[in-house]
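target protein:
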Amino acid sequence: MPSSSLASHGNTSSTLSPRVTFVLLTSILFTYVSASAAPTPLYGVYRDAWGFSPLMLTVAFAVYAFGLLASLLIVGSLSDHVGRRPVVLGAMMVEALALVLFLSAQDIGGLILARVVQGIATGAATTALGAALLDVDRVKGSVVNSIAPMVGMAIGALGTSLLVQYAPLPMHLSYALLLVTLVSLGIAAYFMPETVTRRPGAWGSLRPDLRVARHASQGMWKVMPLNASLWMTGGFYMSLGPSLARSVTHIDTPIIGGLLVCALTLSAGLVILILRNRDPRISLSLSSVMMVTGIGTTLIGVALGQALVLFGGTLLAGIGFGSGFLGAMRSIMPLAAPHERAGLLAVFYTLSYLAMSLPAMLAGLAASTIGLTYATYGYGLTIMVLASSAGIRTLRARFKR
């Protein structure tokens, strides 16, 4: 049974049941995450076609996160006031615009503009969709919020890689398919019931504010060091992964980079399904160990030029990523009341995407000056130190109890 009743006053004509609503929200969230990862395998194609520098590639990667962060800060908690449905529908319109911009891009400037708009749309949608899923079913919603980034990135990265390799119109087909899917889901979302009661303060919520309720903030800050290492890992594989895969395997095709991203995200999604009903403290403890082991193995694979070691380390890092993200979500989200969920998610994702984007941008700059290999070592070792320190803190806290 859903953990909260649906407040349909904002959409009294809705005939969608809670179960159908949950499936629809899940589908929209997966589509958003898939779309966010779709450009990654195409960066090499864009460079070959438009001839821009590695620095501009780094910019194209980073502006998405900056657009998303700006959106989170401004409209992240808006759905707590005006309702989930209008924010989701508005964000879907902006995402559709981003996909049209991808389809019409003729140079790196067009690509950067599309990524900025896409980041804005994703930031607006992420908190509203995540909160709406928790409104409908708090237990299943936590699982979906944890698994969607993993499986969605895998679908987007690998799906686009396959289309680039085997289908016509490599720079356009994936975006066209995503646009058709988004429009179809948008039509269905129009009939979606509202899940929260509107309350005043909408205009005030647009002021950037990283504060959350005290009873939730304490739990969030406890898991944030480990969570930062998780999202740094995501940035590591999303920014440097495709180049590392081509360098180690000597296979110059977008599929190999997509497979490396899939190794990370699918193993993360699998461990989330396995641990979804376990104590979140178990997930957090497992995460620290697997993050250090996985990133260390990945670096060994790079040093030895061994593809199997590289991919094996990525699988282990994915286990750490998935278990840690699940543990973090399940630790903090029950602390928030329904009208606080979107705001808490906005702060949580703001800090998470900062941890992903800033180190990834620095690594991209470092790769262009000191080389890909040394940039990889520095980035990976930083993640290992942060994950280790977070794991030690967790063990000390449990020992004191």
Observations:
- The chain has a mean pLDDT of 86.
- The chain has 16 helices and no strands.
- The domain at 15-196+214-400 is CATH 1.20.1250.20 (Growth Hormone; Chain: A;).
- The chain has one domain: 15-196+214-400.
